[in-house]
Amino acid sequence: MLRKLATIGVVGIVLTLSVVFAAIAPSYAEKGGNGNNNNNNNKGQKVEICHRDSDVKQPYGSKRIEVDTSAVGGRGNGNSDHSSHEGPVPSSESEAQAIKNQHGQTGKWGDIIPPVDGVTNGMNWDTVGKAIWHNNCQYPKVATADVEVLPATCSTAEQLKYKGVKNATETQSSTKDGVFGPRSYSVSFVANEDSLFSGEKSSLTFSGQLKGVSDGRECIPQAPLVASASIKTIAATCESAEQLKYDGIDNASWSGTPDGTFGGAYHVVATAANGAFFIAGDGVNGDRTAKSFDGTLNPILTEGCVLGDTDEEPTTPPAEETPVETPAETPTQQKAPAVLPDTSSATPLAFTAIIAATTGVILSAGYALRRTLAPKF
Q1: Residue 92's CB: how many other CB atoms inside 10 A?
Q2: How far is CA 115 from CA 23, 121, 215, in A?
Q3: 230 three-state secondary structure
Q4: Average model confidence (pLDDT) for the chain?
Q5: What's residue 372's pLDDT?
């Protein structure tokens, strides 16, 4: 009985050890007996890489290619997979051409391989390599970013403004676009995964100090300028209508009815220069920046005027004597008696008096002659 129990115990121990060995044997075999992974650990896994080409315009072809992880691990003979395609990574066509000129037509830039856990730490997985890989194996896109500081004024402080941000993102939330001083600022921009800034940079940082409101001399309040303007009119005469004349103006400018206008309605506006104001009064608007003049100019005078009259006392030149030409006698004309004067220019009354006087003389002479001769008869 004891022998049978002993036999059963030995068999049980053997079976137990067989089960344990069967459970751990595969794991031991995969680790090659030393606990390190081998190629079989990633059998069937895939990875996308940028495989080099000889075209400087597309140094990695037209897109990423997918390969087994066993083709990037550097195992086997060490020269049969993509890890043997070593060389620099060109970030532009000019760089690729320079590499090609140095190493011949086949080109000597390297493959770009991302890291694979347990297989490889990657190859050419730097700033440029990452950007090319993320841009589907094409040259990186160009990222741009800048900031500018808008100057302070008499009412606003300096202001920060983002400028020309493209293929990049602002990453510092403490200093936002449009913030005003006074304060310091620090802004960082990070290029997108498929892009790079100039100089193959993946990020840019700008920092500085924003000033407060300007306190320059131009911001000191100045006393306002006084604007002034006036007009006058020249009275109408018998020869001209009333005339408008701009009289005086200071810190202002004229508009409206032209200076020197004769007769009719007029509307003139004087506008104050920038920073100048009229004194409140007739014709001045509410904000004292303009002054208006309105009225009507009288027409030419028609009453109390003598033709040729002027505002000055008329001066009449002495009349010139015009000689009277005596016409020559003709044979048929008889000369008037010497006792009768020329009455061509006398009045009718004077002519009658002369005739009466002459008649009286003749009658008196006839009467005296009759008395002298009467006794004889």
Answers
A1: 16
A2: 32, 4, 58
A3: strand
A4: 78
A5: 57
